[in-house]
Design brief:
The protein is α+β, with helices and mostly antiparallel strands. The chain contains 14 helices and 49 strands. The two termini are 40 Å apart. This is alpha-L-rhamnosidase.
Length: 913
């Protein structure tokens, strides 16, 4: 067979990048650890690869994986850890390592050889991973810190001064390898010989520290030459020492900041040494970070800096011996999700003087992070930075919607030369900054807005002929990224910032088209599982930093929906296998406690949370924090989740469970219709959300479906005057339900409305992210975030799957359904999505009578295209008719579309409409 010009991309599950070579290569795109490639504690990592080629109809027939203990052995094609042998399989994702048992700190090198229908490919370039510390006893040091207050602490406000810890040591031989392992609670910065290790910020990712603790690993070999060295660690509060201490019944706190660390050195002569945390370390709380708190900000007094404290030879005679402290209690786990990092810098758009040494910076964009400042002045000069999302009518900061979060940083100048400063252990959600007390006249060059979120690749693009759709997509991107903080938080600005489950049941699904967030949501699933009570209860917030176990369906049910999303988008069955027992325990718990004698789930906490007031004036000044529990909503969602569990049961080989869940679902459907269906053709109180749920979940009887669809249209067009009326529950299903019932035109109208309530209304009123409330410009500020994601619902899913036509028909896009909706005044859509199987592209252009469509399908996948065309004869690809062309499998024509199956490759279709 002829040689192909192609490449292969290696993937572990959670991803690492590899070098490539000319015509055939392996790029590690996903592996067990994307952003921390030198440590994992997964004993059977999943290996995956992509075949990257422009040749069409490429299908994998077989593969062989080699895993070796050294690169030299791998180069000699010796898989001393694992040789899979030739496996006759088309599977190229999540191939489980099945070799020898791996040890702590062991490094493994791997490569793959692929056999395709177009020829056999040579071995890929190598990739590697390193095991972490797999056992508790691998940690030889002890936890150190100071489990007590210092005079510089403010216990009442929950603001501690940072803890500084240091240790000097000497290397007397040449270093071959040096690895640093650190658990710094709640947040840390690590320094060696005066330089910070890594570019991460706000590390590690937050967890319930009594359940699990994430450790980070760094290769610091190049830092250690022969001679004297010093280690320095700064500890901040993070979520460990809670931001608020006044309500212990509600807010979970874990204690004072503390550290477990070890530096494991291997010398060139084969000997080893470990520098670990013990009482030989010195510490102090009397440093320049005099207060830090996620809600309230950071105070920094540059006059108190310890010059050279992370270098050898520093005089720490006045520092205290570190103390052994109680360990947090959670298991130690390598952090596989990415670190938070400074991902982008912004410059102020304007600086407006406000008198009394005050200036307002406008960055032109709502985002989360902080400001880096340059300043020069006299020693002791104090500069205050206050943060807010919007301005009051008089041009001052509007901070009422922050509740009691102070969102303020203070910097006291050292004096002398120009000073640069940015905080370490706080972040803010803001567009505007008030600068108070700045010496001289500030300029734009003196300030940089630092956008901070979890380091992850943007994998989706979307543009269209409709500028409003594009702006909403951009606002969504900024809002989603702003709320990635090691867990999905609801908002980045006020005194909340909690990982509410109810914000993301479907919204997270849409996020997957924008960000490579697989590891992020795998981590969150584990947070949810570990927050489950022994009886099965799941909280509304996970990790349960707030003790909210209200027992409802829609919030905890997100657990099942995120697992489903991850399986469908990535194809990793392990997600279901690991979480199935906990999901089963919860769904049975809810039935046991809250199902009445007629089979209805009676317990609900929130109803259709934050549905819009009937008019913008009706909601003026009104508090949105109101609950309207609904047995219809809880029962409808329970029915949907029962069907999910039935499908999960089949996938994890629990056939008896499958039958039981199917029976329970059918019983619920009958009870639901008996209780909530009205003979006039609607459900419950005839609210849009109630009707949407019944239709989308398949609760409605077939003979009543048409009437229900008509009622939904009446809800929108007549009762709502062409607008939506859904809260956070209904919005998760609205756009797809309308499209599935043949009214994509109505969905498009909702997506492009600019009057209240709509996403476009937010844009028309200056939003640069997504509001928490549809009436965010008039609602009471008590609960009125301007940077939320929950009201996105299924909008982004609709963008990519329905407007662009990029939808997985089965697990992980092995078969792609492409059925773009040609609606409204749209004349083009151009979208791409870098899936686990490779890049998918869809670019269509519509004129009065013609339709042009460019698509890209990754190798080892296929697509079912629904091509708009008046007839088969009018369809050409690259200038040639597809009729009677064996490359195109024509499946039929219906409703102005011709259905065609194609293999991988790039295609250019033209049709007559």
């Amino acid at each position: 067979m002829k040689e192909m010009t192609k490449s292969i991309g290696l993937i572990f599950l959670l991803c690492l990048s590899l070098t490539t070579f000319a015509q055939t290569r392996v790029d590690a795109l996903r592996c067990e650890l994307l952003h921390n490639p030198i440590s994992m504690d997964v004993l059977h990592p999943r290996l995956s690869w992509n075949i990257n080629t422009d040749e069409r109809n490429v299908v994998q027939l077989a593969y062989q994986v080699l895993v070796a203990s050294s690169l030299e052995k791998l180069d000699q094609n010796e898989g001393d850890l694992w040789d899979s042998g030739r496996q006759e399989s088309s599977n190229s994702i999540h191939v489980s390592y099945a070799g020898k048992t791996l040890r702590s700190r062991q490094k493994a090198f791997w490569k793959v050889r692929v056999y395709t229908n177009k020829g056999d490919l040579p071995w890929s370039a190598p990739a590697s991973w390193t095991m972490g510390l797999l056992h508790y006893k691998d940690w030889t040091g002890r936890w150190i810190g100071f489990d007590r207050y210092f005079p510089t602490d403010n216990a009442e406000e929950g603001r501690l001064s940072a803890r500084y810890l240091r240790k000097e040591f000497k290397t007397e031989k040449k270093v071959k390898k040096a690895m640093a392992y650190i658990m710094g609670m709640g947040l840390y910065e690590l320094y060696i010989d005066g330089k910070k290790v890594g570019d991460q910020v706000l590390a590690p990712s937050p967890t319930d520290y009594t359940k699990n603790i994430k450790y980070n690993v760094f290769d610091v070999t190049d830092r250690l030459t022969e001679g004297d060295h010093a280690l320095g660690v700064i500890l901040g509060n993070g979520r460990f020492y809670a931001m608020r201490q006044a309500k212990p019944y509600k807010v979970k706190t874990f204690g004072f900041p503390k550290l477990q660390f070890q530096l494991m050195i291997t010398y060139t002569d084969g000997s080893t040494e470990t520098i670990k945390t013990d009482n030989s370390w010195k510490g102090t709380a009397n440093g320049p970070i005099t207060a830090n708190n996620e809600y309230d900000g950071e105070d920094y007094d540059a006059r108190k800096e310890f010059v050279g404290w992370t270098n050898a030879g520093f005089d720490d005679a006045e520092w205290l011996p570190s103390e052994y402290v109680q360990e947090p209690g959670g298991t130690y786990e390598a952090q596989l999700n990415g670190h938070m990092k400074v991902m982008r810098d912004l410059v102020p758009v304007t600086i407006t003087p406000k008198g009394n040494d005050r200036y307002i910076l406008d960055f032109g964009q709502n985002f989360s992070g902080w400001v880096k400042m340059k300043v020069k002045g006299e020693s002791g000069t104090k500069v205050m930075l206050r943060f807010a999302e919007s301005l009051s009518d008089n041009g001052d900061l509007f901070v009422t919607n922050l509740r009691d979060a102070k969102a303020t940083d203070h910097y006291t100048l050292r004096g002398g030369e120009v000073e640069e400063w940015e905080p370490r252990f706080t972040y803010h959600g803001f567009r505007y900054v008030e600068v108070n007390g700045y010496p001289g006249t500030p300029t734009k060059a003196d300030f940089v807005g630092r956008f901070v979120y979890d380091a992850m690749e943007t994998v989706g693009t979307f543009t269209s002929s409709n500028t409003l759709l594009n702006q909403i997509h951009q606002n969504a991107w900024w809002g989603i990224a702003s709320n990635y903080k090691g867990m999905p938080v609801d908002c980045p600005q006020r005194n909340e910032r909690q990982p509410w489950l109810g914000d993301r049941p479907v919204t997270a699904y849409g996020e997957t088209f924008l960000f490579d967030n697989t590891n992020f949501y795998i981590k969150w699933l584990e947070d949810i599982r570990l927050s489950q009570k022994e009886d099965g209860a799941i909280p509304d917030v996970a990790p349960a930093f707030w003790r909210y176990y209200s027992d409802n369906i829609t919030w905890p049910g997100t657990y099942l929906m995120i697992a489903d999303m991850l399986y469908r988008q990535t194809g990793d069955i392990r997600v279901l296998q690991q979480h199935y027992p906990a999901m089963k325990k919860w769904i049975n718990y809810m039935a046991t406690r809250y199902m009445d004698t007629e089979g209805i789930i009676t317990k609900d906490s929130y109803g259709d949370w934050c549905f819009p007031p009937v008019s913008i004036e009706a909601g003026r000044g009104q508090i949105a924090d109101k609950k309207y529990p609904s047995a219809l909503i809880s029962s409808a969602n329970y029915y949907y989740l029962l069907n999910l569990m039935a499908r999960f049961s089949a996938l994890v080989d629990q056939d008896d469970d499958k039958l039981a869940f199917e029976k329970s679902a059918e019983d619920m459907r009958m009870a639901f219709n008996k209780r909530f269906y009205n003979a006039e053709g609607f459900y419950g109180d005839n609210k849009l959300t109630e009707n949407i749920l019944a239709l989308q979940f398949g609760l409605v009887e077939e003979e009543n479906k048409t009437r229900l669809q008509s009622q939904i249209v009446h809800n929108i067009e007549v009762e709502n005057n062409g607008h939506l009326s859904t809260g956070v529950v209904g919005i998760q299903w609205l756009m797809r339900t309308l499209t599935d019932m043949g009214r994509a035109d109505l969905a498009y109208k909702l997506a492009t409305n600019t009057t209240y309530p709509s996403w476009g209304y937010m844009v028309e009123n200056g939003a640069t992210t997504i509001w928490e409330l549809w009436n965010g410009n008039t609602a009471h500020p008590k609960m009125n975030s301007q940077n939320h994601v929950m009201m996105l619902g299924d909008l982004l899913v609709w963008y990519y799957e329905h407007l662009a036509g990029i939808k997985s028909a089965d697990k992980a896009f092995q078969t792609i359904v492409m059925k773009p909706e040609i609606v409204g005044d749209l004349t083009f859509v151009n979208a791409s999505y870098n899936s686990s199987r490779g890049l998918i592209e869809s670019h269509w252009v519509k004129s009065k009578s013609n339709f042009e469509w460019q698509v890209r399908i990754p190798a080892n996948a296929k697509a079912i295209l629904h091509i708009p065309a008046k007839d088969l004869q009018s369809i050409t690809e690259n200038g040639k008719r597809i009729q009677n062309n064996s490359m195109f499998n024509v499946l039929g024509s219906e409703n102005g579309r011709t259905t065609v199956e194609i293999g991988s490759g790039q295609y250019q279709f033209k049709t007559k409409l």
